[in-house]
Amino acid sequence: MPDRRLTPDHTVPSPHRLAFGGDYNPEQWPESVWQEDVRLMREAGVTLVSVGIFSWALLEPSPGSYDFGWLDRVLDLLHENGIRVDLGTPTAAPPAWFYRAHPDALPVTREGVRYAFGSRAAICHSHPAYRAAAARITEQLARRYGGHPALALWHVHNEYGVPVSACYCDGCAAHFRRWLQTRYTSVEAVNEAWGTAFWSQRYASFDEIDPPRLTPTVGNPAQQLDYRRFADATMRENFVHERDILHALAPGAPVTTNFMTALSQCDSVDYWAWGREVDLVTNDHYLITDGRRTHVNLAMAADLTRSVAGGAPWLLLEHSPSGVNWQPRNPAKRPGEMARNSLAHVARGSEGAMFFQWRQSRRGAEKFHSSMVPHAGTDSRVWREVVALGADVGALAEIRGTRTVPDVAMVWDWQSWWAQSLEWRPSQDLDARERADAFYASLYDRHLTVDFAHPEADLSAYPLVVVPALYLATEAAGRNLRAYVENGGTLVVSCFSGIVDEHDAVHPGPYPGALRDVLGLTVEEWSPLLPGETVRLSGPGGAELGGDVWTEFVVPRGAETVWTYADGPAAGGPAVTRHRLGRGTAWYVSTRLDAEALAPVIDAACADAAIEPRSDLPTDVEVVRRSGENGAYLFALNHTDRDAKVPLERSGTELLGGERAAGHLTVPAGAVRVVRLDAE
Ligand code: GLA
Ligand code: ZN
Question: Fewer CB atoms near the end CB (10 Å): N or C, the chain?
Answer without folding.
Answer: C
